Amino acid sequence: MNSTLRARHFRLDKTCRLFRFKRSGAAVVEFAIVAPLFFLLIFGMIEYGRMVMVQQVITNASREGARRAVLDGATTSGVVAAVDEFLDSAAVNSGAVDVIVSPDPPEDAGYGGAVTVTVSVPFSKVSWLPSPMYLGSTTLQAKTTMRRETVK
Fold first, then answer.
1. pLDDT band, residue 20 (cuts 50/70/90)
2. C-alpha to C-alpha distances, 17 to 11, 12, 60, 77, 84, nearest whole angstrom
């Protein structure tokens, strides 16, 4: 490098260095602006991820309950027990879940008749966050209908 280019580089470096010294609180201000948006995004992802997971679990629980309901000798309490057992194994609080079997008792549906098991839960009861921000008033629901497998 020649001396003129070196001198110009030194002046530019000195000028940039002066601007860097005057930015002493910039990182704190940038973090204060970006952090709330970042945390809202993270909590939203956690909440919607949990919602999708619980929806899949209660869909499978209603399916298990319907499988139990279509068999001979099925009772409403047996169907509810099957749903609760599935929910407990999936670590979802079964105490907050509402299970409806239609018709009640399932034996009232004749040969080939439809039996419906509906499982619903308020999202606020199964959320991982202390106070759900986006889905607090949402009720998750799953419904499964199967035909009775009785002997004529």
1. low
2. 10, 8, 62, 76, 66
CA separation for the pair 74, 84 (Å, rounded): 16
| Structure confidence at residue 1 (pLDDT) | 54
pTM above 0.90, yes or no: no
User: Is residue 141 within a helix (H) or strand (E), and if so which, with residue range?
Assistant: strand 139-147
**Tally of structural domains, the chain:** 1
Residue 129 lies in a domain: yes
Total number of residues shown for the chain: 152
Residue 81 placed within a domain: yes
Per the structure, the complete domain to which residue 111 belongs is given by: 26-148
- Residue 112 CB neighbours (<10 A): 10
